[in-house]
Amino acid sequence: MAGASTREWRPDFRLDLAGVLAPLRRGPGDPSWRADGAAVWRTGSTPDGPATLRLHRRGDGTVVAQAWGAGAQWSLDGVPALLGEGDRPEGFVAHHPLVADAARRMPGLRLGASMRVWDVLVPSVLEQKVTGTEARRSWRELCRRFGDPPPGPAPEGMRVPPSPAQVRAIPDWEWHRAGVDLARRRAILACAAVAHRLEAACELGGERGRELLRKVPGIGVWTAAEIAQRAWGDPDAVSVGDFHIPTVVGWALVGRPLDDAGMLGVLAPYAPQRQRAVRYVELSGFKRPRFGPRYSPKDYRAI
């Protein structure tokens, strides 16, 4: 495509392109993401400025990446990490039949690393203590209303997620209109004030990276784990405090619901790759029993 910077990269491992990138997508209407046939489009921030990235894989396994914008070269340089080159699944040992079966069926699944905290931080905070439907609606509203049009020939409707400066300029009533309550708003604004420092978490990685994120008020264990899983592909960052995951892991692996402590006990043999085990459980197709109504969304715009 005209004006694009291009890179071709052929991984030396089996690659499930859509599977590796899936955690970065915040719902089917995510303005920073589009699937166009076999290609995936992403927009985002880089240290050099905004960028649009298009990825598709040829029949011979080669990934063709095209990028536009001030951050184009940075995005192309980061393609291998984004697609899981730095991941090390070889040492993973399954301790449960369901996990072993999922690992066997999904040899191309790897944990990718966007190497950018900010773009995954905002939607992670938006997902605190609300349903996915609510969080994704808020993310769409913020991107569409306050994000910039993407560089290059991106599909119609895409936006670059709002920058820290753009987030700090959002009026209170616009947060309310986007359905974001005061607690999540304060957490996002606190992160925006120190966003440049938080990017260092990618270099620290692991627990040290998560500890840096948790220094910001409003960023707890769950949110830090959600960020770590995407920003640096942390294989051990379990989302402790999640409304669903302990129950799903419990039913899938031991046949009963668990709380956080019970889940961590069951996952202990998988350390330091506990999150990889959770990912296999989530993608295995297992469905936990349902005994009651689902949690109803709460529309903060009506408060």
Automatic annotation (TrEMBL):
Domain of life: Bacteria
GO molecular function, one term: DNA-3-methyladenine glycosylase activity
Gene3D superfamilies recorded: Hypothetical protein, domain 2
CC annotations in GO: cytoplasm; protein-DNA complex
GO biological process: base-excision repair, AP site formation; DNA alkylation repair
InterPro entries reported for this sequence: Alkylbase_DNA_Glycosylase/TA (IPR051912), DNA_glycosylase (IPR011257)
Stretch forming the signal peptide: none
Keywords: DNA damage, DNA repair
Name of the protein in question: 3-methyladenine DNA glycosylase/8-oxoguanine DNA glycosylase
UniProt source species: Pseudonocardia kunmingensis
